[in-house]
Write a structure and sequence with these properties.
The chain has about 180 residues and is mainly alpha-helical. The protein has helices at about 5-15, 20-40, 45-60, 70-90, 105-110, 115-125, 130-140, 145-150, 155-175. The chain has 9 helices and no strands.
Length: about 180
């Protein structure tokens, strides 16, 4: 069965075909939630913001070029996450900001089943946020530098620099976790 392009599915969804939402949510729901949770540190809020990102796209109905759905979704999600943090900061103290959900488990525990993946995310948590975001978008979400730049509001060269610096920062952390890496 041929996998239909994200942009075509989105166009059909905007035109009223509700069945097109399922494949888009299956492709991007969990990973987008994980991405947002990297900002907000609250799995419930991250899930709500992921749904809001999809809703905003439906309301706005942007015309997307080939390969444009994913970067647009993540850019929308990032903007919502940053807005959420700004607003939450007005009403919550630093002690209220926890990483765990009410059930005591981290969002990563449900998505990242193997120890190697959890170790990778532990290492990502220890590097600068810009490096982490660039590495996440390029290597985990498999976006091009241009797509990641659109999400991060950075030029292609800036994304390249962040990725290279992030890889340098990750190498000793991964080595401590016992994870090897390929030399570029």
């Amino acid at each position: 069965m041929r996998r239909e392009g994200d942009e075509i599915l989105f166009e059909r969804l905007v035109a009223g075909d509700q069945e097109c939402l399922r494949p888009l949510m299956e492709r991007y729901g969990d990973t987008c939630t994980l991405y947002i949770n990297g900002y907000v540190r609250d799995v419930d809020a991250a899930e709500d913001l992921m749904i809001e990102a999809f809703s905003r796209m439906l309301a706005k109905r942007p015309r997307l070029n080939a390969g444009g759905f994913k970067p647009y979704l993540y850019k929308t999600a990032r903007n919502l996450a940053l807005r959420h943090i700004r607003l939450r900061g007005r009403f919550m103290s630093m002690e209220d900001l926890g990483i765990e959900s009410e059930g005591g488990e981290r969002v990563e525990d449900g998505i990242l089943r193997d120890e190697r993946s959890r170790a990778l995310y532990r290492c990502l948590e220890k590097i600068a946020p810009d490096y982490r975001e660039a590495l996440y978008l390029v290597y985990i979400e498999e976006m091009s530098y241009d797509e990641a730049g659109a999400v991060m509001r950075k030029a292609r060269k800036q994304v390249d620099n962040l990725v290279q610096r992030g890889k340098r920062a990750m190498r000793p952390l991964l080595a401590k976790e016992g994870i090897g890496y390929e030399v570029d």
